[in-house]
Specification:
It comes from Catharus fuscescens. The protein is about 60% helix and about 0% strand. The protein is mostly helical. It has a domain of about 325 residues. A hairpin with a 4-residue loop joins strand 3 and strand 4. It has 24 helices and six strands. The strands form three sheets. It has a two-stranded antiparallel ribbon with strand order 1-2. The longest helix is centred in the first third of the chain and has 60 residues.
């Protein structure tokens, strides 16, 4: 039930002049004819002067320049134009988020590419056969890192453990060519590797730092894509029949009424648009959480997780690890022999290249910290500006697209005639439209598409919250979506097809079988309880089923 003094409102309407002025002569319809023709409609049957408006079904039934056909055509046109306004506003937000994703993705891929290139350039001269006979091990590592970043279902800790295991097996054999070392012997050596620490503290240190950096980076990149996708899907939601009528009344009824120069009252426009976008406004809370979450992770990327240093110096850490193994070869070999026994002497003997001691070479990594700082600053500015997008959309459309009059104007189109607009402006969201005087809104039937997108925002925010505290969350493989955004080299089948299994991970990531992308605010993530994304998905399915039954 609407609670509004309709008697008073109707009294105001009744007291208004039936025409645009007080004259008794029928007014010319030349302005409406011109507008109607400009919209692509035929002028056949369009009145030259005002006619009685009893036939009108949307506009006020006073004297009018519109026939029933014109009213219907204007209604359809207003619908398409308003939907175009929404899509245009959405495209602007999408463009901002997509540009931020592209910038960060390009920066992150460039870090990986430069590190890999530096390794390929320096290692042949530094390590000779220690490198040339194990090129695939290094290539596989960078391929796995890229696949993880692109959201493939890879356990990053396990991938790093596998790399160090494979590298140790091959280097140990090359450093001890005088022995015949079997696969069984290597298995024994690997079991004692953690105790002997042949690569020093590098594997453990790199695993901690790299996993945090990669978790944050890929969640951050995905967050932009999810936000853009949500806007795209919501912008495609069709307008209700009641909304179409209200938009027609707002945009074209003043023309039919012979008041083409009269702008809609601002508060009148706000009530119409808030009624039409009631469901969209309900995105606001979760949308703000997502923006806050992205800002929080951005601070981590440019702060404690130090993405620039960690990712850009992977090759340096690997070189440091190999040098540790070389320098402590005799000690490590002795310990392995004590634990696994003495292997048989090889009949092949050793090559001079294998025995050749290489001088220690210091690798340098060029820092791009300033570029990252600028990226983060730009992103945080844009994300902050987008926080209120959904609740400010009505006022933005009214002021910039509908071109409504000022709030204090008493000579604006109020839906019936030229004058003041008396009803109060409704609040935001579906529940606040129960008494909307301009759009009949059924608050018991939320839009299904928008409810699903709210769930996507919750899931993505949940992921970002976990990333903010260093917890891994598996993503569905979205490499196809990200491949057009500068994602880097493709992954060969022989590499991507293999499964990592040799070295168990110390911590398994949380796995969520959830929709393609998306999930509360990161700034308070460490103190808030982060719900499981799987639970959120189940709730989404339950809500969907309940809403279908209700319909």
């Amino acid at each position: 039930m609407r609670v509004f003094p309709w008697g008073f409102w109707l009294l105001c309407v009744a007291s208004a002049p039936a025409r645009g002025d007080s004259g008794s002569k029928a007014r010319s319809c030349s302005e409406v004819r011109q507008l109607y023709g400009a919209k692509g409609f035929s002028l056949s049957g369009v009145p030259q002067a005002e006619i009685s408006g009893e036939h009108l079904r949307i506009c006020p039934q006073g004297y009018t320049c519109c026939t029933s056909e014109m009213e219907e055509n204007f209604a359809n046109k207003s619908r398409s134009e308003f939907e175009a306004m929404l899509k245009e506003a959405g495209r602007s937000v999408q463009a901002t988020l997509t540009a931020q994703h592209r910038s960060f993705d390009s920066y992150f891929q460039d870090l990986l590419n430069k590190s890999e290139k530096a390794l390929y350039d320096a290692f042949p001269s530094m390590y000779g056969e220690l490198y040339t006979q194990n090129v695939k091990v290094f290539k596989d590592l960078y391929s796995e890192l890229r696949r993880y970043y692109r959201s493939s279902n890879i356990n990053l800790e396990e991938a790093l453990n596998e790399f160090w295991t494979r590298l140790l097996e091959r280097l140990f054999k090359l450093l001890n060519p005088q022995y015949h070392i079997t696969d069984e012997y290597l298995d024994c050596m690997v079991k004692h590797a953690e105790q002997h620490r042949p690569f020093g503290e590098v594997p453990r240190d790199l695993k901690v730092k790299a996993t945090r950096a990669f978790i944050a980076a890929r969640s951050y990149a995905q967050g932009f894509l999810v936000g853009s996708d949500v806007v795209k899907k919501v912008s495609q939601v069709s307008l209700s029949h009641e909304c179409t009528r209200a938009i027609m009344k707002l945009m074209y009824c003043p023309h039919c009424r012979g008041m083409s120069s009269v702008k809609p009252c601002n508060n009148y426009c706000l009530n119409v648009v808030k009624g039409c976008l009631a469901n969209q406004a309900d995105l606001s809370t979760e949308w703000k959480y997502l923006m806050d979450s992205l800002i929080g992770v951005a601070d981590r990327i440019d702060g404690p997780y130090n993405v620039d240093t960690v990712i850009g110096t992977i090759h340096v850490r690997i070189a440091e690890a190999i040098s540790n193994l070389q320098e402590n070869k005799d000690s490590i070999t002795s310990k392995v022999f004590q634990g696994c026994g003495n292997p048989k002497i090889s009949t092949k003997g050793s090559s001079s290249e294998d025995k050749k001691r290489r001088g220690k070479v210091t690798l340098e990594a060029k820092s791009s910290a300033q570029a990252l700082e600028m990226l983060v600053l730009d992103a945080k500015g844009n994300l902050t500006a987008l926080k209120t997008y959904w609740i400010t959309l009505p006022s933005s459309l009214c002021s910039k697209k509908v071109m409504s009059s000022s709030a204090s104007d008493d000579k604006c189109w109020n839906g019936m005639t030229k004058g003041s607009y008396l009803p109060e402006v409704m609040g935001d969201g579906l529940a606040n439209q129960i008494n909307n005087p301009e759009v009949e809104v059924d608050i018991t039937k939320p839009d299904m598409t928008i409810r699903q997108q709210i769930m996507q925002l919750k899931i993505m925010t949940n992921r970002l919250g976990n990333a903010n505290i260093g917890n891994d969350v598996d993503f569905q493989d979205t490499s196809d979506d990200m491949s057009g955004s500068g994602s880097g080299d493709s992954c060969p089948d022989d590499v991507c097809g293999k499964r990592l299994s040799k070295s168990p991970s110390t911590r398994q990531p949380e796995t969520h079988a959830i929709p393609k992308q998306s999930g509360h605010g990161v700034n308070g993530a460490s103190s808030r309880s982060l719900p499981s994304a799987s639970l959120l998905l189940l709730l989404s399915v339950a809500v969907t089923a309940a809403l279908h039954l209700r319909r």
